[in-house]
Specification:
The chain has about 325 residues and is α/β, with parallel strands linked by helices. The protein has helices spanning about 5-10, 30-40, 60-70, 85-95, 115-125, 140-160, 175-180, 190-195, 220-240, 245-270, 280-315; strands at about 15-25, 50-55, 75-80, 100-105, 130-135, 170-175, 200-205, 320-325.
Length: about 325
Amino acid sequence: MPSATSHRKKKQRRPYLSVVLPVYNEEENIRLQYDQIIKAVKPLKVTYEIVFIDDGSADRSAEILREIAGSDRAVKLVVFRRNFGQTAAMSAGIDFASGEIIVFMDSDLQNDPGDIGALFEKIEEGYDVVSGWRVKRQDKFLSRKLPSQIANRLIAKVTGVKLHDLGCSLKAYRGDLLRQVNLYGEMHRFIPVHASWLGAKITEVPVGHHARKFGKSKYGIIRTFKVLLDLITVTFLGKYSTKPIYVFGGTGFFLLILGLASFVATVLMKIFLYQSMSRNPLLILTVLLVILGVLFIQIGILAEILIRIYHESQDKQPYSVLDTVNIDYK
């Protein structure tokens, strides 16, 4: 495998390592986070950049980031016109980061920048994706840790990507592979799954995790339900995106069997219970609910497919940039 030195000689203007941080209302954490990242990446002896994506912050985050970028050319800043969400911010990070290794992390000081070196070393060993595993996670058990554990086990079971902590933002990727992944909706937590479809070599390393000191968490229990809905989409795209007749035809076939069973039940109720076939509200309600449920799921999947066609056919990004600082190459 080519060394970091040879990469730097080939691309003098482009850094070897990019550290990308989505930011949303983190004015109290930004400077501390920046200082810790600098301390973590300098011992690696590689060229680097720190890419902050301000996701429409309503506090002084963008102002503070401009000050940092003004004093350090290694800091790149992208400011969104409004809040587009974490997936859009990470998508922008992929677009604007130029490193051959890209590390993502949160900007709330809960991820430990000191772990960047461990992820970096694993990538250098030949892995394409290295995921952080918050073994001693410092979050509330019922509202954060338990739902996350359930979601991680379910995702691992369904997708076959055996990671303990998909929700951990601290991850490292090989840049050429990551740039083949298109992100929309709330799919950032499934990047390793998308990478696995491309044949990525994936591993995980234990990382530190700190309780939040400043600001407020942007996540709640409702996020767990969003993860489950996204899992349905990811599963469909991974298994049936090139053969949708399997899922739609299978569903239709199941409905035909269900309809036949309902018809048989109605006939039996007519014969043995003398109940009117045309006045059986329970049967009518059951059939109606089943059909509506299936239709809604299918419409949701079709909408996901259409939104991807819309974005990719027009090369349209899921965000709008207001301003950039120190972005002088693309």
